[in-house]
Amino acid sequence: MQKDPIISEQVKVIFKIIQELSPGRSVELRITPYGAIQCVAGVNHRRGTPPNTVEMSGQTLIKLINKPTLWGSLCESGQIQASGTLSDLSVIFKAAAVLYSHK
Questions:
Q1: Domain ranges in the chain?
Q2: For residue 28, which phi and psi values (nearest 5 degrees)?
Q3: pTM for this model (two decimals)
Q4: CATH 3.40.605.10 fits 5-101, yes or no
């Protein structure tokens, strides 16, 4: 899959906001093919597949940051795959959306 440079730049900005709001290593947020970050305080994950993962496309991430109330429906439709007890990032995205709208 080829990376769209515009989406790639937006993903970087969103990753930075999320890491500022929720530093940690308990959840891996994967945006294929743009990258992944570790976030959310708690148990640090170091190797292998983390127990708490959230995965979505770059387009879904942008849709979510602009309308964070979509978290539940995007999960239900399969556009967001979230697994693990700490994988509900809906509150983080609500806070991130406020910061993103001011960038």
A1: 5-101
A2: -100, 125
A3: 0.92
A4: no
